[in-house]
Amino acid sequence: MAMTATAHGSDDYDRRQRLRWWTMRIVVYALLIAWAVICIFPIYWTLTTSFKIAPDVMKGNLVPWYDYVPKWLGWRSLGLSPDTIFSTSTVREEFTKRFFNSVIISTAASALAVILGSLAAYGLSRFSFRFGFMRNSDISFFFLSQLILPPVVLALPFLVLYKELALLDTRIGMIAIYTLMVLPIVIWIMKDQFAAVPVELEEAALVDGLSIWGAFLRIIVPLVLPGMVAAFILSLVLCWNEYFFAALLTSTDAKTLPVMIASQTGSQGINWWSMAALSAAGILPLIFIGVLLEKHIVKGMTAGAVK
Amino acid sequence: MSTADGDLLHTVNVDTISASRIRLGRTLLWASVALMFLTFGVQALFETGVTPFGFDTWRPVLFTYCLWAFALCMSRVMIYGEQGKKALFVLPAVLFVLSMVVFPLVFGLWISFSDWNLSSLTGRKFNGLDNFRQMLSDPFYWNALYNMLIYVAAIIVEYAIAFGLALLLNADIRARKFWRVTFLLPLMLSPVAVSWMVGKSMLEIRFGPLSRFAKWLGWEQPSFFGSPEIAKLTIMIMDAWTFIPFMMIMLLAGLQAMPKEVLEAAEVDGASRWQRFWEVTFPLMLPVSITAVMIRIIFKLKLADIIINVTSGGPGGATDSVTSFIFREYRDRSNVGYGTLLAMVYLVLIVIFMTVLLKIADWLVRRATGAR
Description:
The structure holds two protein chains of two kinds.
Chain A: H1 8-49, H2 54-59, H3 73-77, H4 90-126, E1 129-130, H5 136-144, H6 151-165, H7 171-195, H8 199-207, H9 212-241, H10 244-249, H11 257-262, H12 272-292, H13 294-302
Chain B: E1 2-3, H1 19-48, H2 59-80, H3 82-112, E2 114-116, E3 124-126, H4 130-136, H5 139-153, H6 155-170, H7 176-188, H8 191-202, H9 209-217, H10 228-256, H11 260-268, H12 273-300, H13 305-310, H14 322-333, H15 336-371
Helix pairs in contact in B: 1-2, 2-3, 3-15, 4-15, 6-10, 7-10, 8-10, 10-12, 11-12, 12-15, 14-15
């Protein structure tokens, strides 16, 4: 900061400034590293535990190859280790079934929510509706207020209704409920996206002879596609991790991965290695999504929050 | 639903709709309504035992409802032309939410005044206000509500940590993207996996790394779920761990959107780092902060997965949230009536609580922006 370097005084000042700057650096990076350890360690623990055998778990060994020898025991119990992957395994069949249930339910629900939510958000941002006493702002509020609704309020009525409708333990039923769960978030994100698109674009498109839907599909959707992807990814994460509805409404056919993880208690305590392998298999897809698509997730979460 | 004047996107309607097309649209709509009520009536009479014929389940009624929804959308276009096509944007979502929320809510109100054990054959028995009376004298429910208050209050600490982390990430650091991805990871993890691998494995008294760390720090007999206070604290910390990144990302976005000139002006004016934060950054961040905290509160009020999996409410209901309590209540006695009433009361309390909170937040923002 010193503009002119003159005598000893400013030299001393410089040194103090530099010292302060270095302390700040060290404190900042120390805090960053400390929090990174807090974030990473549970994931590290899950991954390493899945390669342990009973004595290693009991001794609480931490570092593979240094204080224990990694074994495939946990993954073998899932039928996913190198030596069992090509042989038949009932556990693996069970696991893949649950895994694909989770994949199908969460992608279908997210896609449906993005379609319904984008259409609604676009309509609300461009046209004014009257629905009984409700105006546009009321309809928006009606959608967004679903966010407050705790799942437990709907859970038991849904249980009874689904039983009567024979939708209990079906993928369709779960997809419908997850769509409902993420729809307000999608509408929240997409409203923000459409508000940023100037109306003149559609007006020009209409003048050129496109219909409203044509203008929406061919001009607007390509423009807001990044926002739709963000909403989709965020919904995917929420649906993949959902446990409460899945635990109540599924039993055998449509059971999702979180429910399978939660029900892994054997008669003689918990097999930590297989538990860890299962948990790791459950969280790894999301870690990949989190690392690769972080930009979209951040975009989805911050839409509408920052003006 | 019809569109009114004052659209942001104006359209010129040139289409002339023939009378026969309108008639066809009306017929289609009313035919589907009639079909829906017919199936509903047949099934209702069958279920109550008046008539001997009907369907095994209520599913056909659902199909006719879907048919009606489709016919409604079609008839909008047939009757109103271009105007109807505009309604088509919002109508599907409205119908979906109405059927998935409003109908179950009304149905839930009906269940909540009944004694209904799903596993027994007697079915639903209307019991008036009995459930309500039972709730008033249920210490566990009030305890769960009290716990929710404490859990929500813990958000202040989470907010402080999240703000600190956002400031760190906004500082002049290298590899910002790496830190941001790392800090975001806990949010990606499924709460169930977290509660098993962190709550049960890492906090295991004999071999869990955190227990051994606590022993090394000098805690003789670490037990994270022994006493009610510590158990509550452990649950709070685990929940905070997964959700701090969420608030952090929102606050970071707020910090990055802040005008740099204001901070520079404050620095030129000779404000210290501390002053700059409290006098400039914090008030400017207030709107974003309130949005982040509000959304966090909404998510916190749904807290259940971790509690169900780690402590299932123990010790003695000390960690119960309302959701986990109702979940257990249903699992143990499979009585949907009482559980639904508890959930309904919870919903009413939440709506009141959130309304008051929004008013306070409004007042805070107005005061902060008005003072400057």
